[in-house]
Structure formats: structure tokens, C-alpha cells
């Protein structure tokens, strides 16, 4: 079953400000979610949050970059709502 993955408008603008390795990791994450679903236990520092939200690290170091996404099981859709530094992540 293939999931539909999209970037929220705000996350699109945030992604433009990421360094190249983090952008590459974001698109790799989107491909993994599209193929295998939103639960990504194989990604670094993956965590399931309240309300159907998930997060993982895109690039470790200082600063650490993370992605946060939501899932809708009824429509098999995942929306990435945040891509940026760990400090400003909406946990």
C-alpha cells in the first residue's frame, strides 16, 4: 500500500533554508514514508508523538535538523508539517 506524502506550505519554505544534506535526508524520508508508511523506527531518533504526529532527525550535529509529520490513516496520507532546527520543532 503506497502512502501519499506531501509537504505543508510552511514546511516547503522551511525546507528551502535547510543545508543540502538535510534536504537530501528529507526527500529520502519522504520516499521511505511513501513506500512503507509513517512509522519510521529505522530512522535516527524516531519518535511517535501525541495526536498521530511523528518526528525524526534529518541531520545530527549542531544544529540538529528534524522533521515532524502527521498521518491520516483513513485517506492514507502523510503531511510533513515541519522541517527545521530541533530547537523550534513543534513537539
Protein described:
- With 91 residues, the chain is α+β, with helices and mostly antiparallel strands.
- The chain has one domain (4-77).
- The protein contains 2 helices and 5 strands; from the N terminus they run βααββββ.
- It has helices at 9-16, 20-36; strands spanning 4-7, 47-48, 53-59, 65-72, 77-85.
- The protein has a 5-stranded mixed sheet.
The percent of residues in helical segments reads: 25-40%
Q: Major β-sheet, in short?
A: 5 strands, mixed
Poorly predicted ranges: none
Structural class: alpha+beta
Strand order of the largest sheet: 1-5-4-3-2
Number of domains: 1
Could you give the order of the helices and strands?
EHHEEEE
Shape type: globular
Q: Please identify the oligomeric state.
A: single chain
- Strand fraction band? 25-35%
C-alpha-based Rg, rounded: 12 Å
Tally of individual helices: 2
Average pLDDT over all residues: 94
* Separation of the first and last Cα atoms: 28 Å
Number of strands: 5
Summarize the structure.
Helix content is 27%, strand content 33%. It is an alpha+beta fold. A hairpin with a 5-residue loop joins β3 and β4.
Question: Tags for this entry?
Answer:
5 strands, 2 helices, 91 residues, alpha+beta, five-stranded mixed β-sheet
Amino acid at each position: 500500500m503506497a502512502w501519499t506524502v506531501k509537504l505543508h506550505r510552511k514546511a516547503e519554505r522551511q525546507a528551502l533554508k535547510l543545508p543540502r544534506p538535510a534536504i537530501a535526508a528529507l526527500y529520502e524520508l519522504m520516499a521511505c514514508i511513501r513506500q512503507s508508511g509513517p512509522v519510521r523506527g529505522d530512522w535516527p531518533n524516531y519518535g511517535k508523538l501525541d495526536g498521530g504526529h511523528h518526528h525524526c532527525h534529518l541531520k545530527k550535529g549542531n544544529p540538529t535538523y528534524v522533521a515532524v509529520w502527521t498521518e491520516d490513516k483513513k485517506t492514507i496520507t502523510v503531511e510533513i508539517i515541519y522541517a527545521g532546527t530541533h530547537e523550534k520543532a513543534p513537539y
